[in-house]
Write a structure and sequence with these properties.
The protein is elongated, with a radius of gyration of 21 Å. The chain is mainly alpha-helical. It has two helices and no strands. The model has no long low-confidence stretch (mean pLDDT 86). Helices cover 66% and strands 0% of the residues. The protein starts with a helix and ends with a helix. Keywords: Coiled coil.
């Protein structure tokens, strides 16, 4: 019975897939994806900076004199 309920739900919006065919997307959809990907790039850069800072702090702490 649960299978029938699943069919009534709207399909989740698919995320952008690297390398996917873009020919079927409208200009507005492409712009939306660019905005989303730019935000994701910023999020990744921030995570990298935090990890780098943690690593630098650990290296400084354990550095032999």
């Amino acid at each position: 019975m649960a299978g029938f309920l699943d069919d009534d739900r709207p399909a989740p919006k698919r995320a952008h897939e690297i390398g996917q065919d873009l020919s079927q997307l409208a200009v507005a959809e492409l712009s939306e994806r660019i905005t989303l990907l730019e935000a994701e790039i910023e999020r990744l850069k921030e995570a990298r900076e935090k990890k780098s800072a943690s690593r630098s702090a650990a290296d400084a702490f354990f550095k032999k004199a």
